[in-house]
Amino acid sequence: MTTPVERLAPVRLPWLLSVAIVNLGTYVAFFGPLAVLLPQQTEAIVGDGKEAALAVVTGIGAAISMVANPLFGALSDRTRSRFGRRVPWITGGSVVGALGLTILAGASEFWQVVVGWCLVQASVNASLASITATLPDRVPVAQRAWASGLVGLGQTLGILVGAGLAIAFGGTRAGYLACAVFLLLSALPYLARSRDEPVTERLPWSARDFVRSFWVSPSEHPDFAWAWLTRFLVNLGNAIATLYLLYFLTDAVGLADPDGGVFIVIAVNSVVVAISAVVAGRWSDLVQRRKVFVVWAGVVMAVAALLLAFWQTWPGVLVAAVVLGVGFGAFIAVDLAIVTEVLPDEAGFAKDLGVINIANALPQVLAPVIAAPIVTVLGGYTTLYVIAGVIGLAGAVAVVRIRGVR
């Protein structure tokens, strides 16, 4: 912990909500396509090869995200403008992200889907890196888990709202356009009240130092490394478990309306995650303990994965959605609070958070590589969910190695 957080004044709820709404918009742009639109569009274009094709488009997009988040975060840290460091990237990322969603709306060839999705991933990650950095920029440690829980709701509700827009507007074209409009509107409350301090002083520039800054030595900053590993493993388990949700409901559960089933599962899960994130975040701030919440969150998420592995019925899916929501809600609130407390570079919050967010993006690259052969030839969905639970649990246990946070 190198940040002089004692000098940060407590933040107010309206400002936090404006940050959460930007976060919501970015995740609508991500998860509306991922949950419903991309699987539908891929199946319509490719047909029987849908699993492999979806793995290709999501894997390439995640690879773009893995580079874009730390890169644009670092550029945000170095931005000098009268609007502050974060506002230009939130604005530009939202506008270009909406353009990418519009390209997807008109895509009729698979290569067009890949191009549009890569543009969305690159641009919206620019906005995401900047808005996430406002937490260590502005929020004192005593409010971190509560603030992280509120802001983290954007990720959870983004899945619900994105899937809801995709289903409510009917068809991939209207769904993509609805997500694009939502992304643009979500940035407006924060831009109206950002209070980002104007920065005009220019920093010395060295391309070599800029590139080298992305490497954070695990030996010099072990807490940062363990926080990265924790997030990576938990997100890898979650990505493996959720990649083929639509196909799981269709092929394993045999649901008559899998599109509607996806929305119901997401809605149930989102409500529970929202409650769990706020409660766990507030509780963690009150007791000033973080790691125990992450460990128990991992245990609960592993139980949810086992339910999906061995109870492949519609009631089983709903129960698993509730259990997963309890665990994942606690994880996203407290994990983000931990991360903000172990950032090594006060002048590079967005860059370091971008490096941390590789632990979000890399699982999206690896999940298709791991999940596709398991589903098709190595045991099907039962094996898939057992492996997902074990990986996620290993991530939660890794948090114990962090020494600088209780």
UniProtKB/TrEMBL annotation:
The entry's localization annotation reads: Cell membrane
Identify the main location: membrane
Query: TM spans, by residue?
Result: 12-32, 52-75, 87-108, 114-133, 145-168, 174-192, 232-249, 261-280, 292-311, 317-343, 355-378, 384-402
Keyword field contains Transmembrane helix: yes
What Gene Ontology cellular component terms go with this record? plasma membrane
Tell me what topology the record assigns in the membrane. Multi-pass membrane protein
The record ties this protein, via Pfam families, to: MFS_1
Q: Which GO terms describe its molecular function?
A: transmembrane transporter activity
Keywords tagged on the record? Membrane, Transmembrane, Transmembrane helix
Q: What's the superkingdom here?
A: Bacteria
Segments forming domain Major facilitator superfamily (MFS) profile: 223-406
Q: What is this protein called?
A: Major Facilitator Superfamily protein
